[in-house]
Design a protein that fits this description.
heterotrimer; A alpha+beta (about 475); B alpha/beta (about 500); C alpha+beta (about 100); B: about 500 residues; alpha/beta; eleven-stranded mixed beta sheet; 15 helices; globular; C: about 100 residues; alpha+beta; flat; binds magnesium ion; binds zinc ion
Chain lengths: ~475, ~500, ~100
C-alpha cells in the first residue's frame, strides 16, 4: 500500500526528509539570561547579548544542554560527549549577530530512530541523522509600515533543537505520523511543548520525486512550515509540481521555497535565491562542550517511560490491541489517565471507556484533561460498577452523563437515581412468573417454535423491573422457565 | 607640584596616601596635560568632567579609608572598551555616535579600583593595524621624534593613542588590547611598558571584538611596577566571558623581588631574522647580558614554526573579524546609510562605515572561510597554530621565560610602509607567535636607537605566569635604566 | 588560487560591503598579494595535527537557567538609527 503519484509517464515515488526546529523548554535563552516566554511586548525579552551589542559574549545555558541530552536519549540516539558550537554566517534583519550560533560538524546528538505508528497498528522505523542546538532568530514584521519592516528580537537567542531525519519518509501520511510521534516524544520528555501555532515546532520539508527503484532526485526545501496539515499539503503540492516539471522535460532546481497556507502551494523564496555560503567555523567565543559522563547518567535516570515502551507494556500487561495502545500512549497525560482508570480494573473495558465516551466528552466540551469534571478515580469507579454487575453497560452511559454534569461519583448517582441493577434471582423470577402467568398466548407461541418471542419476554421483564434487571440473568432465567 | 604628570602610579599612590596631593590635583594636572598634547591626536573623546567627578569621589574614598588599587590614578581608556554613557567607536565611522548602555568588565574593574578616566584613546580602526594610521579620527602622532627631525612618527598600533598619551606624560597609564602585538609593539615604539596578559586573564566582555581567540586586554604604563599594579586591577574571572579563566588574581607587585638568579631565559634561534637592523640585534644581545649579569641563565631554544606565525595570524584574525564585524549592519546602533532594500542598506552602510584596512581584512576573512577554501586556509592555519603552541610548550619545559626584541624596527615615519600591507604586517613578527599561543608577553624600553627613538625588548612567559614575567621585566628595567623623554611632552621637555 | 574581479565581487557581496567596479581591480591585486603570502603554510605537513579551537585548555562553562537579563527595551533600542513602537525599523524586506 505504498504511496504513489500517477503521472503521464507512470507512477512516481515521493522521498521526504524533515528538519524540525523545536524550541527547547527553558526559562532563559541559549546564551543569555533573557526570558523565553511567548507573547511579550516587542524587544522586552532582549538582553545586550541577544541584540548583539558590541563586545557582548555568549554563555551556554546548562538546562538547554540537559534538554538536548534528554532529547537525544529519547530518540534512542548517540550522545556525543564532545560537541562544538559553530557560527553560521549570513546577513538578515532579524539575525543581529550576522551569524547564528549553531552546531555543524560536531553536533551534540548523532544518529537515532523514531518509530512511526501507522494506521492499523503498523509501525515503521525512520532514521534520525542528527540533532543539534542552535539559536533562534528574531522576528521580522512586514505588514505594519508601507516601506519598512519591523524587527522584534524577543525570540533572538531562544534555544532550538534541530532534529534532522533521514530521507526515509515516503508519503504525506508518514510525514504526519513522524511529526506526531516526534512531538509526542518531546512532550513526554518535557523538552519542547510542541505548540506549532506558537512556533515552538516548525519543519523544513525536503521533497524529491523519483520513479520507484531509481536514484534520488533533486530536492527542494520548503522552509518553516508550521502545522502538520500544512506539511502534508506542501509535500503533495511539491511532489506534483516536480513530477509535472520533469515530465515536461524540465529540471528541478535545488532551492528554498516558501509555503503559502492560503493557497496550499509553495513558491521560490526570492530573498534566498543567492548562493548560500555560510562559512561555518567554530565560535571563538565558546569552548568545546564536553559532557560529564556521570551527568549524562543522571539525566538518563530521569527519562520517563516513552510512548513506544509504554505501548508495548499496554499490549502485554493490559491485553490491548496495538491500535488502541498506540492511541492511548500518544499523549503522556492521557496515557497516565488511562493507567489510573485501569488500575485494578478490567483494562480492556477501561480502554473502551477512556477512548470512547470519555475522550468523546472531552472533545465535545473542548476541555483539557486537567480541567475535566470527571477524574480518573471517578471513571474507574464507574467501570468498577459495570464489572461487578451493579449497573449494566447501558445504564453506565446514563450514569456517566450525570457524572459529567455534576462531578459526582458514580455510586452516588446510582444510589440517588436508584439505578442499581437487579441481580437478585428471586426478584427477577417473580417478575418472570407474573409475565408468564399473564400471557399464556405468548407462552404457547414460544413453546410452539416461535423462538423470536424471547425478545418480547425480555422486553416485558425489563419493563417490569424498571430496566434495572441484569439482562444476562433475565435471558437465562426466561429460557429456563419457558422450557419448564 | 609641577611634576605630577611625571610620577609613576606607585609614586602617585604614595603621594596621595601621604597627603602630598589629592586625586583632584593629580587629575587636574593630567587634564591640562591632555589639552597640551592634543597635537598627538591621542584621544577620540576627552572626558575631563567625568575625570574630575571621579577624582573627587576618589578623594572621598581615600579619606574614608576605602582606597582601591588604582585609587585616584588618571588613565586613558582605549576606545575599544565600551564605556557606559561615553561614546565608544573602535575608531570607526560605523560606530560614530554609539553610546553604550553598559560598561566593559575591565573598565568597570578599573573604576572600581579607583581609576579616573581622562578620555577614550585613539587606535587603529577596530584594532586592525600596527601604526595607528587606520583610525577614522585621524593618525596618532608619536611624541618621540628622530634626532634633528620633526617628521611625524607612528606610535605603533593598534593601541597607539594609549601609548602616545602615556609616553607624553598626559596619562599615568592606559588600557590597551593586544591581538597580535597591539600593546607590546606601540609600547616599544613609544618607550613605555606594555603587558599582554595570558589569554583568559582579563575579561573580553564589553571589549569590541577584533579576533576573539586572540584579543586580550592589558596595561600600558611607564614602569613595570605600574604594570603590575594596573594588571591586578584589570584582571579577574568573569562569568560573562566563557573564555575567562577562573584563577585567583595575585598581588602582582609582590613578584617584583629583583631576584632572578637561576632562572632560565630562552633565546629563540628563529627570531634572528634576516634583514633585522643591527641595532635591534644589539639591543637583544644587551638584554641577554643584563639578565646573565643578574644571575639568570640564557639558553638557546628553538621555536621551529616561528616563520609560519604571521601567515597563520593573517588567516585566523581576518576570518574571525569577518564574522565579528557582521553585527555592524546599521540596524541596532551606529551609522546607517539608507538603501532601496535591506541588502542595499547593508552594503551602503558597511562600505561607508569601514575603512580600507578593515574592509581588506573582512574580505580576506570571508574568502578564507568560504566554501572550497576553508580547509586550505582556515583549517590549515588552525593546525599550524597548534604546532606553534606546541613549540612554546616544549620550550617552557626547559626555560622559564623567553627574551626577544619586541619589534623589528624602531618607530617609523607616518606614511612609510603605507602602500604595502605585508610590510606593515611584518611589524608584528616577534609578537604574533605568543598571541597565537595565548601566552603573556611584556615589552620594556631598553634604550634608544641610533635615531634617538625608543627600542623595546619583549619577555614571554608561561600561561598565567605573569608573575615571573614581571619579576624578570623588573630586573631588566633596572638594568636598562631607561630615562629618556620624548620631544612632544606635556609641559615641554 | 587567484582572486579575480568576479571573486572580489562575490565575497564583497557575501560580506555585504559595496565594492564598485573600479575598486574591484585594485582589491583583487591586494587580496592576491596577501593570499599568495599566507599560502606559504601549504609547504608545512600538518597531517594528523589537531586544528586549534581555543588556546584556553578548558571546556565550555555552563550557566544556570535563570532569567536575570533583558527586560530593558530602552537600553537595546537607544542607539538604533531607526525604531518605532519598540521595534527596530529597516527597509522593507520582501521574502
Ligand atoms: Mg535547516
Ligand atoms: Zn537550524
Amino acid at each position: 500500500m505504498s504511496y504513489r503519484i500517477k503521472g503521464n509517464t507512470g507512477e512516481w515515488e515521493v522521498v521526504i526528509g524533515l528538519e524540525v526546529h523545536a524550541q527547547v523548554i527553558s526559562n532563559s535563552k541559549l546564551f543569555s539570561g533573557a526570558a523565553t516566554a511567548f507573547g511579550a511586548e516587542p524587544n522586552h525579552q532582549v538582553s545586550l547579548v541577544d541584540a548583539a551589542m558590541p563586545g557582548m559574549l555568549p554563555v551556554l545555558n546548562k538546562e538547554v544542554v540537559a534538554q538536548g541530552v534528554r532529547t537525544g536519549l529519547g530518540l534512542r540516539a548517540k550522545i556525543n560527549m564532545k560537541s562544538v558550537f559553530e557560527r553560521k554566517n549570513y546577513f538578515y534583519a532579524d539575525l543581529p549577530q550576522g551569524y547564528q550560533i549553531s552546531q555543524f560538524l560536531e553536533p551534540i546528538v548523532g544518529e537515532g530512530i523514531i518509530t512511526l505508528d501507522l494506521d492499523g497498528g503498523e509501525t515503521r522505523d525512520v532514521g534520525i541523522e542528527r540533532m543539534h542546538l542552535e539559536q533562534d532568530a528574531g522576528k521580522s514584521i512586514h505588514d505594519q509600515h508601507p516601506t519598512q519592516s519591523y524587527i522584534d528580537l524577543n525570540r533572538s537567542g531562544v534555544a532550538l533543537m534541530e532534529i534532522v531525519s533521514r530521507p526515509d519518509l515516503r508519503s504525506p501520511e508518514e510525514a504526519g505520523a513522524y511529526l506526531r510521534k516526534l512531538r509526542s516524544i518531546l512532550r513526554y520528555l518535557g523538552t519542547c511543548d510542541g505548540n506549532m501555532d506558537e512556533g515552538s515546532m516548525r519543519a523544513d520539508v525536503n521533497v524529491s520525486v523519483r520513479k520507484p527503484g531509481e536514484e534520488l532526485g533533486t530536492r527542494t526545501e520548503t522552509k518553516n512550515v508550521n502545522s502538520i496539515r500544512f506539511v502534508q499539503q506542501s509535500i503533495e503540492f511539491e511532489a506534483k509540481r516536480q513530477i509535472k516539471l520533469i515530465e515536461d522535460g524540465e529540471k528541478i532546481v535545488q532551492e528554498t521555497r516558501l509555503f503559502d497556507p492560503s493557497t496550499g502551494t509553495t513558491r521560490s523564496m526570492r530573498s534566498k535565491e543567492e548562493a548560500h555560503d555560510y562559512r561555518y567555523f567554530p565560535d571563538p567565543d565558546l569552548l568545546p562542550l564536553v559532557l560529564d559522563p556521570a551527568w549524562v547518567e543522571e539525566i538518563k535516570k530521569t527519562i520517563p517511560e516513552l510512548p513506544d515502551e509504554k505501548k508495548a507494556r499496554f499490549i502485554k500487561d493490559f491485553g490491548l490491541s496495538a491500535y488502541d495502545a498506540g492511541i492511548l500512549v500518544a499523549d503522556r497525560d492521557r496515557a497516565a489517565f488511562y493507567e489510573a482508570v485501569a488500575e485494578g480494573r478490567d483494562a480492556k473495558l477501561a480502554a473502551n471507556w477512556v477512548m470512547g465516551d470519555y475522550f468523546g466528552a472531552l472533545n465535545k466540551s473542548g476541555l483539557s484533561l486537567d480541567a475535566s469534571p470527571v477524574t480518573a478515580q471517578q471513571l474507574g469507579g464507574l467501570i468498577g460498577l459495570i464489572s461487578d454487575d451493579t449497573i449494566s453497560g447501558r445504564t453506565a452511559k446514563e450514569v456517566f452523563e450525570a457524572m459529567w454534569e455534576s462531578g459526582k461519583d458514580a455510586d452516588v448517582i446510582v444510589e440517588e437515581k436508584g439505578l442499581k441493577q437487579i441481580s437478585d434471582t428471586s426478584a427477577i423470577e417473580a417478575a418472570i412468573d407474573e409475565i408468564i402467568a399473564n400471557n399464556p398466548g405468548q407462552v404457547e407461541g414460544y413453546k410452539g417454535g416461535n423462538e423470536r418471542l424471547i425478545g418480547w419476554f425480555v422486553g416485558q421483564t425489563m419493563k417490569a423491573t424498571g430496566g434495572k434487571a441484569n439482562p444476562g440473568m433475565v435471558n437465562a432465567l426466561l429460557k429456563k422457565k419457558l422450557a419448564e | 607640584m609641577s611634576n605630577l604628570t611625571h610620577l609613576t602610579i606607585a609614586d602617585a599612590l604614595a603621594g596621595m596616601e601621604k597627603g602630598d596631593f589629592t586625586a583632584r590635583e593629580l587629575t587636574e594636572a593630567h587634564v591640562k596635560a591632555v589639552e597640551e598634547t592634543r597635537g598627538l591626536n591621542a584621544y577620540i573623546v576627552e572626558t575631563p568632567e567625568i575625570a574630575l567627578k571621579q577624582a573627587d569621589a576618589s578623594d572621598k574614598r581615600r579619606a574614608s579609608g576605602e582606597a582601591g588599587v588604582m585609587e585616584g590614578i588618571p588613565i586613558a581608556m582605549k576606545d575599544l572598551f565600551c564605556t557606559e554613557g561615553t561614546q565608544t567607536t573602535a575608531a570607526s565611522h560605523i560606530l560614530e555616535g554609539f553610546v553604550p548602555t553598559y560598561e566593559s568588565t575591565v573598565s568597570g574593574n578599573l573604576w572600581n579600583a579607583g581609576a579616573v578616566m581622562l578620555g577614550k584613546s585613539n587606535l587603529d580602526q577596530f584594532a586592525m593595524g600596527s601604526a595607528n594610521i587606520t583610525s577614522h579620527f585621524g593618525n596618532v602622532i608619536n611624541p618621540w621624534q628622530r634626532e634633528g627631525s620633526s617628521a611625524e612618527l607612528t606610535p605603533g598600533g593598534s593601541s597607539g593613542g594609549s601609548a602616545a598619551t602615556v609616553a607624553a606624560r598626559a596619562a599615568m597609564a592606559a588600557t590597551g588590547t593586544d591581538t597580535g602585538g597591539s600593546i607590546r609593539q606601540p609600547a616599544a615604539f613609544s618607550g613605555i611598558v606594555g603587558l599582554k596578559p595570558t589569554y583568559g586573564r582579563c575579561s573580553r566582555w564589553g571589549v569590541i571584538a577584533f579576533a576573539s581567540s586572540l584579543d586580550q586586554a592589558g596595561p600600558m604604563t611607564r614602569s613595570v611596577r605600574d604594570a603590575a599594579i594596573m594588571l591586578e586591577a584589570m584582571a579577574g574571572y568573569d562569568a560573562k566571558d566563557s573564555t575567562s579563566v577562573n584563577l585567583p588574581v595575585p598581588r602582582y607587585q609582590d613578584a617584583l623581588t629583583g631576584d632572578i638568579r637561576g632562572l632560565k631565559v630562552g633565546i629563540p634561534r628563529e627570531y634572528r631574522i634576516d634583514g633585522t637592523p643591527v641595532e635591534i640585534e644589539k639591543a637583544w644581545e644587551q638584554g641577554i647580558e643584563w639578565l646573565r649579569a643578574a644571575g639568570a641563565e640564557p639558553v638557546e631554544i628553538s621555536l621551529p614554526h616561528t616563520k609560519y606565525a604571521l601567515p597563520t595570524y593573517y588567516i585566523i584574525a581576518p576570518a574571525e573579524c569577518s564574522s565579528n564585524l557582521a553585527r555592524y549592519d546599521g540596524v541596532r546602533y551606529g551609522q546607517r546609510v539608507e538603501g532601496r532594500s535591506l541588502d542595499d542598506m547593508y552594503e551602503n552602510t558597511r562600505a561607508a562605515g569601514f575603512g580600507d584596512e578593515v574592509k581588506r581584512r573582512i574580505l580576506i576573512g570571508t574568502y578564507v572561510l568560504s566554501a572550497g577554501y576553508y580547509d586550505a586556509y582556515y583549517n590549515k592555519a588552525r593546525q599550524v597554530r597548534t604546532l606553534i603552541a606546541n613549540d612554546f610548550k616544549k620550550a617552557y619545559e626547559s626555560v622559564d621565560v623567553i627574551l626577544t626584541p619586541t619589534a623589528p624596527s624602531p618607530a617609523f615615519g607616518i606614511g612609510e610602509k603605507m602602500d604595502d600591507p605585508i610590510a606593515m604586517y611584518l611589524n608584528d613578527v616577534f609578537t604574533v607567535p605568543a598571541s597565537l599561543a595565548g601566552l603573556p608577553g611584556i615589552s620594556i624600553p631598553s634604550g634608544l636607537s641610533s635615531e634617538g627613538t625608543p627600542l623595546g625588548l619583549q619577555l614571554l612567559g608561561r600561561a598565567f605566569d605573569e608573575e615571573t614575567l614581571l619579576r624578570v621585566a623588573g630586573v631588566m628595567e633596572q638594568a636598562a635604566g631607561f630615562s629618556a623623554l620624548p620631544q612632544l611632552i606635556a609641559g615641554g621637555k | 588560487m587567484s582572486v579575480d574581479k568576479k571573486t572580489v565581487a562575490k565575497i564583497a557581496k557575501l560580506a555585504r560591503i559595496r565594492v564598485d567596479e573600479a575598486q574591484q581591480e585594485a582589491l583583487s591585486g591586494e587580496l592576491n598579494q596577501i593570499l599568495g603570502w599566507v599560502e606559504q603554510l601549504s609547504e608545512l605537513d600538518t597531517s594528523g595535527v589537531e586544528p586549534m579551537t581555543s588556546v584556553v585548555e578548558m571546556t565550555q562553562p555552563l550557566r544556570e537557567d535563570v532569567v536575570n537579563d533583558g527586560g530593558y527595551v530602552d537600553r537595546v533600542t537607544k542607539n538604533a538609527p531607526e525604531s518605532a513602537h519598540g521595534f527596530y525599523a529597516v527597509p522593507k524586506v520582501v521574502e
